[in-house]
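Fold this sequence, please.
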Amino acid sequence: MYILSVDTTAKTAAVCLAKEDELQGLVPVSRLVLNSTVTHSESLLPMIAQALSLANVSLSQVDAFAITSGPGSFTGVRIGVSTVKGLAFSQGENAVCIPVSTLYCLALNLCAYGDNVLVCPVMDARREQFYNALFSLKSKMPKRLCEDRVITAKELVAELCEKYPKRKIVLCGDGAALLYSLYKKYPGGEDLNVSLALPGDLLQDAFSVARAGYEILKSESFDRAQYGGSLLSPTYLRLSQAERERNERLLSENK
């Protein structure tokens, strides 16, 4: 079984072709990451083609697609989802497309950090807000403690101080460095045990996306009918900037 996974929810573009192994479960076959000014619309399809070419695997041999459907950059999420939907369409009605949370996949990056670590993925949502969820590592797997959400730095630090004052907290995601520079400015922040994930674990990794998709694919509750390409859609936690500005303008005009 081959799984092709994609993440374009932030500046990082990540693609992985993974294969099911009898002894190890899922293993990466080819893995590409790009952090540059090249837009996802330019880089994604060439990266997918290269990942398949390096593994000497054709698109027709891919059994399932895994994609981070959000949260993240509105443009990035749309590009990733629409690209995977197009690839799945070429596979016919039986193509399997598995959407997974960007934040859960970021937490999967940190599975080797030890039990009882509190993993705090944060993605910069602008306007002093972050896309965030909290996870506790148990048996080298992330256990979700809250749903994906939009939260301010002040609100997040207050929650960490109230609920997890003595836990080792590790930040990851493209908002991690920003939050790390801010958290001590808020009440109680100086007493928290906060650190940044290692550089190789900090940002999106498409193999984590493949692992998250594989978990769903192998679960007892998996229903193939629920994961057709036509059903794949983005997951947004708030309105886009253009929609927010339009609503603000309309509200101002109606006053």
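The radius of gyration is 19 Å. The longest strand covers residues 25-34.
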